[in-house]
Amino acid sequence: MIDLLALCAFNAAYADAIDSDALERWPDFFADDCHYRITHVENEREGLPAGIVYADSRAMLEDRIAALREANIYERQRYRHLLGMPLLLEAEADTARARTPFMVARIMATGQTEMFATGSYEDRFVRREGRLLLQSRVAVCDSTVTDTLLALPL
Amino acid sequence: MIDLLALCAFNAAYADAIDSDALERWPDFFADDCHYRITHVENEREGLPAGIVYADSRAMLEDRIAALREANIYERQRYRHLLGMPLLLEAEADTARARTPFMVARIMATGQTEMFATGSYEDRFVRREGRLLLQSRVAVCDSTVTDTLLALPL
Amino acid sequence: MIDLLALCAFNAAYADAIDSDALERWPDFFADDCHYRITHVENEREGLPAGIVYADSRAMLEDRIAALREANIYERQRYRHLLGMPLLLEAEADTARARTPFMVARIMATGQTEMFATGSYEDRFVRREGRLLLQSRVAVCDSTVTDTLLALPL
User: Fold this and answer.
1) Which residues have CB under 8 Å from A30's CB, separation 6+?
2) Angle B53-B55-B56 (CA atoms, 0-180°, nearest 5)?
């Protein structure tokens, strides 16, 4: 059975990959046939499927990271994720569904720090060959106006 | 014995009820004869019992939610709770005392996000018929000036 | 083996000592021959050893607290730490290495609250006579411009 501590450890590693500029490791947290989306609470409530960012395979996530590197986006800003304890909604031997709150601060090259995004991950996990992977992560932002600023993954 | 993980899971569900607009579920986290209070660190240090918000039964919590719904308070703002790991101060088979730090962001309908409140929950838990419940939660805010803005529960 | 939950409980107690103005307890979280440093991500990347704050014994930590008390620094500001789940990098019976993200809000006597610092602790733990202690904690701030404001420990 997938348990709370396993999800905590997974999320700690996920956030660390983004925040410590190891973006190339980020796609490895996903299954090949994954779904990743950033959206906001109003779009989600109205069932609008297209989000701010959308990917439906790990290859698309890899493309996104390559594009960010080319744009040198990491020179200009860093993120710091603080994740809450997952709320375990369903847990089976090799699958789980969970919701995890996040706060993300953005630190600009000037040193300015601001609360960049808050919201929750709506997650489906699978265990394949002993490894926990995201089958689907939808990052639902609480605010409707972060869109244009988004660059690094949430 | 009530352990750390049980409190973590409880707190994750508590915060989720508030942040995902399931306010009607919020009183269910409390025992019938509960104590709930929002206060700030200076009032608490001086032993002033009356807080910013005060309830001494679950029925009062239910009344508060009904009032918030009537005022459509949720249309105008959302909260996002990030809770730290509880500091377990005492743990018995069916009771526990813990202190848990919180940061709460407020997201206005305009999309504006701000650090709304920080502080700690001073908690007494009881287990009744197998369910963990709050006998007492005192939300002690670090700042003395959040009073007039308070609306949703902390 | 030192496990995730033991580190979580340790960090909860550590943050509570600072945030609840029990600063005299703060040095007790360190081994006698400890290393404590506050630095930022650019200094760390360039391998600059001197940080914003530096101590290489518990006695130096005690001196620092005495100086803060003399300056009445706690009358003017409070901190609130929110710590993420530790990323366990190595774990043995009596030693461990971990990285833990933090967000620290600062609450001024005026009540003003701001995101003061974000970053990660780079930690080495030891267990001595059954107690977990920090052999080394390096608080690596994400921003390069918090220096002059630093007062309380991170």
Assistant:
1) A36, A58, A61, A133, A134, A135, A137
2) 150
Q: Is this model's pTM higher than 0.90 or not?
A: yes
For residues B82 and B16, what is the distance between their CA atoms, to the nearest angstrom? 10
Tell me the CA distances in angstroms from C45 to A20, A71, C112, C127, one per residue in order: 11, 21, 33, 29
Within 8 A of A117 by CB-CB distance, chain B residues are 113
Q: Identify the residue whose tokens are 């967000």.
A: C103
**ipTM of the complex as predicted:** 0.93
Interaxial angle between packed helices C4-19 and B4-19, expressed in degrees from 0 to 180 and rounded to the nearest 10: 70
Across the interface, whether the CB atoms of A113 and C142 are under 8 A apart is answered: yes
Beta-strand pair B30-40/B131-141: parallel
Nearest chain B Cα distance for residue C5, angstroms: 8
CA distances from B57 to B32, B44, B53 (A): 6, 21, 13
Per-residue pLDDT of chain C (154 residues; tens, 9 = 90+): 999 999 999 999 999 999 999 999 999 999 999 999 999 998 888 887 666 788 999 999 999 999 888 888 777 889 999 999 999 999 999 999 999 999 999 999 888 899 999 999 999 999 999 999 999 999 999 998 875 556 789 9
Angle C25-C92-C9 (CA atoms, 0-180°, nearest 5)?
Answer: 35
Q: Indicate yes or no: CB of B16 within 8 angstroms of CB of A99.
A: yes
Rounded Cα distance between B146 and C80, Å, is: 15
Sign of CA dihedral A95, A81, A141, A148: negative
DSSP secondary structure of B94-108: SEEEEEEEEEEEEEE
Tokens of C78: 């409070």
Q: List own/partner pairs for C20-26 with CB under 8 A and 24 or more apart.
A: C20/B120, C21/C74, C21/C78, C23/C65, C23/C68, C23/C69, C23/C74, C23/C152, C23/C153, C24/C65, C26/C61, C26/C65, C26/C153
